[in-house]
Amino acid sequence: MYMDQYKQYKHDFLSAYDEYADPIFRFCYYRVSDRDVAHDLVQEVFMRTWKYGIQGNEIKDIRAFLYQTARNLIIDYYRKAKVDSLDQLSDDGMQFDDSAFIDPQDIVIDATYTLEKVKRVIMDLKDIHKEVIILRYIEGYGPKDIAHMLNQTENVISVRLHRGMQELKEKLDHIQNHDK
Amino acid sequence: MTNNAKHTLHMLQDEALSADKKAAIRASLERVSSQYPLVASKQGLLSNFSVIVFMRKHTTPMIAGLLIIAFGATTTAAEGALPGDFLYPIKVNVNESIGDALAVTSRSQAEWDVRVAERRIEEAVTLAAQGALTLEIQEEIKEQFEKHVKKADALFIRIADDGDVDDVIRGRTDVEAKLKAHSELLIEASQIVDKTDSDISEILNSVGSQVTTAIEAREKAESKILTQKKDVIKESVEEKMRLAEKKIKSAQKIIDKKIDGDNGDDYVKVSEKFQSAQNYFELGKEAFDNEDYDVAFSELQKAISTAQEAETYTSGLEVINLNKKLPRNKAEYDERQDQTKTDKKDTSQNEVHEDEKSDSASTTIPLIDSDSAIDDEHEEDNRENSQSDE
């Protein structure tokens, strides 16, 4: 990397931080359920991204790169913590059937529930479901973007979204029934 | 009363980094990204831990600790800021004022001012090596540098008046040696970039003039000692010998750590200085054994000064060398790429030639495709850094 490229990269990198620091934080926080760990992960995500670029490697899509790096770091975090919550992919071979999709509009949440309770339900989801739900419904990215960010096909993402919403619904129903 | 999940999930977007933490991480990233050449070194990115290491190296542990406790990550991150950076005012106005406040004795205050003056010149070296030492920044650095050197100078005069001549000689020697090394580094740094960007005469003259002041003041202080009785001079020489030995050891340690044995030019330059320090030491020791204390005093003084110069110079070379490795523009980058390819081609051809000579029975010669080897390495890096999946 020569000086002109470096200056441009530095500018783009810091702008990316301003834009994506919070979304990456949420992505980490809802998955590791610990603010301090999420905070450290955000810092590490951006540090690694900087390092990767400064070594002269091309980053075509910085947003996708940040999410992929965050995802890898979360996996590492779980491995190190020996927490067996990394669910093996069982959805990848399945074809997604549009008609079976659960629309989140149809999932009813009692308004007396605090956001904290809902957060806990989200955090309790299977990891592969959690990440797509965060990206789709909290961050508002489309399935195509998510597929690109997670280096997956759109079909896999749609399957995970569908199963994730099923799991979310079941968990919410369970809690609501339990509270009654 | 109910909400749908879509609405509720969207509300979770309110979760965000606290403003403090967001600013702290940004400051840390800004610091790291401002030190491009260091980042691009083979040691890789500076970790958070290395910020603390950096601070410990450049300030006292107590100050580093206090900074971290009192102001958190922002002030820590500011330690690496350069003039023109967002965090630079914090480095100068917050971090350094703490160091200033903690220096309670005249000697520690003088040492602190020398250190701050040195920090300004280190910044100038880094900026010069990056081709970013504009006349405006030079002026700013020069002003700050002179301010602190003059403060130290006044304090040394006060210390001398109090009768602590040894302290004064030590302090003046330190200034003289460090500034000499920094002058050399400044010149080398300015030669990395195009000549049009490298007018460093303003700052260089200022440093040179302070070196002269330090030498004159040191010599004046030394003359006070050398006019005393023989046993008093002997005591001073003995103390000087201890200091010289200590300083040579410390320089040796830094050189061993920072200079690769096979790093030709640097090794020659540094070892010349270091060798001189050792020679002065031997001469001083010999003169001491011959009870020629005046000569011993003078030679040991040179040994301390030269060893300090070697140490400062060696530390500063790191920044210079890392910047030297960087092409300044696309044309230079392309030129280097072409040169690398030509070199590789030549090496491969020579290898073929050598193999043919040594093994005439061989019909096929296995050649390593260095380009593809590099690509493979790169591929591995890419995989490691980014795209691994479940």
TrEMBL record, chain A:
Entry's Gene Ontology BP terms: DNA-templated transcription initiation
Stretches assigned to the RNA polymerase sigma factor 70 region 4 type domain: 117-168
DNA-binding keyword on record: yes
Top-level taxon: Bacteria
Keyword terms of this UniProt record: DNA-binding, Sigma factor, Transcription, Transcription regulation
Entries under Pfam families matching the protein: Sigma70_r2, Sigma70_r4_2
Residue ranges occupied by any RNA polymerase sigma-70 region domain in the UniProt entry: 17-82
InterPro entries associated with the record: RNA_pol_sigma-70-like, RNA_pol_sigma-70_dom, RNA_pol_sigma70_r2, RNA_pol_sigma70_r4_t2, RNA_pol_sigma_r2, RNA_pol_sigma_r3/r4-like, WH-like_DNA-bd_sf
Presence of the UniProt keyword Transmembrane helix in the record: no
Signal peptide: none
Database matches in CDD domains: Sigma70_r4
One term of GO molecular function: DNA binding
Segments passing through the bilayer: none
Family, as annotated: Belongs to the sigma-70 factor family. ECF subfamily.
Matching NCBIfam families: sigma70-ECF
Protein name stated in the entry: RNA polymerase subunit sigma-24
Species, as recorded: Candidatus Zambryskibacteria bacterium CG10_big_fil_rev_8_21_14_0_10_42_12
Automatic annotation (TrEMBL), chain B:
Keyword field: TPR repeat
Heme among keywords: no
PROSITE patterns: TPR (PS50005)
Compositionally biased tracts (Basic and acidic residues): 329-359, 380-390
Name recorded for this polypeptide: DUF5667 domain-containing protein
Domain DUF5667: 80-155
Origin organism lineage: Bacteria, Candidatus Zambryskiibacteriota
Disordered as annotated region, ranges: 328-390
TPR repeats: from-to residues: 277-310
Species in which this protein is naturally found: Candidatus Zambryskibacteria bacterium CG10_big_fil_rev_8_21_14_0_10_42_12
Pfam family, one: DUF5667
